[in-house]
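Good day; I would like, with your permission, to put a structural problem before you. What I wish to show you is a protein chain and, alongside it, a tokenised description of its three-dimensional fold. Thank you for your consideration; the sequence and its tokens are set out here:
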Amino acid sequence: MAPSPSPEDVELLLDIADEAIERALAGQRAKPPALASLPPSLREPVGVFVTLRVGGELNGCIGALDGVEPLGPAVARLAVSAAFGDPRLPALRPADRPHLTIEISLLSPLEPIAVANRDELLASLRPGTDGLVVVALGRRALFLPAVWEQLPDPERFVDQLWAKAGLSPGTWPKGIELSRFTARHHEREAVGL
């Protein structure tokens, strides 16, 4: 199950992301929060993604599947990466800030999916709940559970994930590895600090 920090801790996480983005937009180096200043839930390593939307449109999404660094500093780093380092999307501009929404997705640990073929995979998926990771042919791609909002059909969800990984939709590569996860999403408009 995905972590569930207190509402106060969630607000602090969103503040951390907001401040990191604001500092970067001002040309300053983002300062990760001091670990000692954080509540215990934000010192733990947790898989996390930061998604940015400007006027409702995706403007960056960067994350870490496996929590390898404490959550508070990870969110600061990933917020800046989502704002300026997502190669699929334009860098955030100061003019975008008034229209910016910050979303933080806290991930559960990965759970391997033991299926032998596409039909078994489709039958095992929980639309609206599961995030999915595919690893095959030296490539890896994932969809957060929120992607179900745009791709509610399991077949389209899987085909688009395959395409994102550079795999041919409908194929079942030898040695394929699949994992699922859940996420708790927290978002708000950027407020500036």
